[in-house]
Amino acid sequence: MNVASFAAASLTYCQEFKASQTSGYRTHAHNLAVGGKRGSPHRFGLADDVTYDELPPLDQAQKVANLLGLEVIREDTHDHIQPQGWVNHPESDDA
């Protein structure tokens, strides 16, 4: 999945669930400042953190995400979406 196809899938996901993107692409410095993981998909424009007008059940969110080629990771304050099968990039500048 490239940046353009991720952006389209993320937008479709957000429209489906009335979600707002709260974090997308991050610079190296910002990723470090917010405690982002080394090689985070945020560093490559391939992740969004989203919040919802009304939180959907996780199984429903995952079903829609899967249809779009995305993966949903539920965190304390938001959901993180990224391409299915993403493995943190080992050669990132996030040392």
Strand order of the largest sheet: 1-2-4-3
Mean pLDDT: 91
Question: How many helices does DSSP assign?
Answer: 3
Biggest pleated-sheet summary: 4 strands, antiparallel
Q: Architecture, CATH level 2?
A: 2-Layer Sandwich
Strand composition percent: 15-25%
Query: In total, how many domains does the architecture comprise?
Result: 1
The coarse silhouette is globular
CATH class: Alpha Beta
What do we call the CATH topology?
A: Muramoyl-pentapeptide Carboxypeptidase, domain 2
- Low-confidence stretches are none
Order of helices and strands: HEHEHEE
Distance between the termini: 24 Å
Helicity level = 25-40%
Quick description:
This protein is an alpha+beta fold. The chain is 33% helix and 21% strand.
Structure description:
With 95 residues, the chain is of the alpha+beta class. The radius of gyration is 13 Å and the shape is globular. It has one domain: Muramoyl-pentapeptide Carboxypeptidase, domain 2, CATH 3.30.1380. The protein is built from 3 helices and 4 strands, in the order αβαβαββ.
